[in-house]
């Protein structure tokens, strides 16, 4: 992903900004179509085989007329190719190019961006609730956002959590590598669907991992995922607040979740207790800019976009929330860590386009 910033608003003419917004509308329509293609199984059916509208409809249990319009839209937008665009409508065969198929159907590829489209479109279904929260200062909880947010968040992180995170990133930190090599006890706070815990267990066969998350459906999914991955004997999941967990862990980690928590200080304090005097405490969160600057690059825009539609409303759905939002800058985390009793926070030299790695001392 590039990290270019847009032209400042003061430097754009009405025509230029109108063109930018029009382009965004086209992108929104593409995201909505991708959401439908994912939910209805269109992309999976097209992967590796050219189909007519009638064939696609039969394979996915959908109406042919809708399937044809969706196929034509995707071809017009350059997502699909057509064997013969001059053929009669019912004879046109549509193909999904291999590169596009990786982005849309390969759930383990680092290029699998489709879950972000699902999340954006799924959150859009709650725009009335969001508008109400903006007016009252209330929130829209993770439970209210439902399966679209829950499943797309897990799917978006799955390639990293099963790939570079356990294999490359964490072993590059000597203290963490030592824990993984000797088969230490790991606590995964805010584990979601469990992919981070499962990834650690798969990459390091001697470790045991306990995952904690307050969301019941996520814990149920995590248990299924661990069983299917064959690590259910070493990876356990519990629907509980991390503050209720026992100590004695060699590594206590929170992967992309501290910014969502209504009371991050108490969670960090619990993590400190869980790690004791000798354990490592790791926080992985969004790689936002260190200071607010406008306009921001594309990562900054993306994180603010998630914050105004999902993370901040979820945080503010809980009484007494600090309302962090997605854009948790390093100094904000340092403040939370000091309040939780930590001596300091080190930014680890792990380069990732979206995440920053913190060691809490």
UniProtKB/TrEMBL annotation:
Domain named S-adenosylmethionine-dependent methyltransferase Rv2258c-like winged HTH: residues: 36-105
Gene3D superfamilies (alphabetical): Vaccinia Virus protein VP39, Winged helix-like DNA-binding domain superfamily/Winged helix DNA-binding domain
Residues annotated as domain Methyltransferase: 182-293
Name assigned to this protein: Methyltransferase domain-containing protein
Keyword tags: Methyltransferase, Transferase
InterPro entries: Methyltranfer_dom, SAM-binding_MTase, SAM-dependent_MTases_sf, WH-like_DNA-bd_sf, WH_DNA-bd_sf, WHD_Rv2258c
Methyltransferase in keyword set: yes
Pfam families: Methyltransf_31, WHD_Rv2258c
GO molecular function: methyltransferase activity
GO terms of biological process kind: methylation
Keyword S-adenosyl-L-methionine included in the entry's annotation: no
């Amino acid at each position: 992903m590039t990290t270019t910033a847009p032209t400042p608003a003061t430097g754009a003419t009405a025509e230029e900004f109108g063109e930018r917004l029009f382009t965004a509308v086209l992108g929104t329509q593409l995201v909505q179509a991708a959401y439908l293609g994912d939910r209805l199984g269109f992309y999976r059916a097209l992967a590796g085989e050219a189909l007519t509208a009638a064939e696609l409809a039969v394979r996915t249990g959908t109406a042919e007329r809708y399937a044809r319009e969706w196929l034509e839209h995707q071809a017009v937008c350059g997502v699909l190719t057509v064997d013969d665009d001059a053929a009669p409508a019912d004879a046109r065969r549509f193909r999904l190019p291999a590169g596009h198929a990786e982005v849309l159907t390969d759930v383990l590829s680092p290029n699998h961006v489709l879950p972000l489209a699902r999340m954006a479109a799924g959150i859009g279904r709650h725009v009335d609730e969001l508008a109400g929260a903006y007016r009252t200062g209330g929130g829209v909880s993770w439970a209210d956002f439902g399966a679209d947010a829950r499943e797309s968040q897990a799917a978006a992180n799955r390639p990293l959590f099963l790939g570079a995170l356990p294999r490359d990133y964490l072993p590059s930190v000597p203290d963490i590598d030592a824990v993984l090599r000797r088969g230490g006890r790991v606590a995964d706070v805010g584990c979601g669907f469990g992919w981070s815990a499962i990834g650690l267990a798969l990459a390091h066969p001697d470790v045991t991992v306990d995952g904690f998350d307050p969301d019941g459906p996520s814990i149920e999914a995590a248990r299924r995922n661990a069983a299917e991955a064959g690590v259910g004997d070493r990876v356990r999941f519990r629907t509980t607040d991390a503050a209720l967990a026992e100590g004695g862990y060699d590594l206590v980690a929170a992967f992309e979740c501290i910014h969502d928590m209504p009371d991050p200080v108490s969670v960090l304090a619990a993590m400190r207790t869980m790690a004791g005097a000798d354990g490592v405490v790791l926080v992985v969160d969004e790689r936002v800019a260190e200071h607010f600057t406008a306009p921001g690059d594309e990562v900054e825009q993306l994180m603010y976009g998630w914050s105004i539609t999902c993370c901040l409303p979820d945080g503010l759905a809980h009484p007494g929330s600090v309302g962090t939002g997605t854009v948790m800058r390093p100094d904000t985390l340092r403040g939370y860590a000091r309040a939780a009793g930590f001596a300091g926070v080190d930014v680890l030299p792990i380069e990732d386009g979206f995440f920053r790695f913190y060691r809490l001392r």
